[in-house]
């Protein structure tokens, strides 16, 4: 049902000060924990803000079976 899942990469409208606008989702709930893919900085941000500011969602790639 949820379109956001742990491991997905989201592109937000505003850039992080390091210059990257892509974030990996580490935790999903009322708040999200996001990790900047540019510098590795982690933030907690309200779900409402993430949903409002998302431009693109890249789903995590299915792991290749071993």
Automatic annotation (TrEMBL):
<dbReference type="Pfam" id="PF06107">
    <property type="entry name" value="DUF951"/>
</dbReference>
<protein>
    <recommendedName>
        <fullName>DUF951 domain-containing protein</fullName>
    </recommendedName>
</protein>
<dbReference type="InterPro" id="IPR009296">
    <property type="entry name" value="DUF951"/>
</dbReference>
């Amino acid at each position: 049902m949820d379109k956001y899942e742990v491991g997905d990469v989201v592109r937000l409208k505003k850039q992080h000060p390091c210059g990257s606008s892509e974030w990996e989702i580490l935790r999903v709930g009322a708040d999200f924990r996001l990790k900047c893919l540019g510098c590795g900085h982690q933030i907690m941000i309200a779900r409402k803000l993430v949903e409002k500011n998302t431009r693109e969602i890249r789903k995590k790639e299915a792991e290749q079976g071993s």
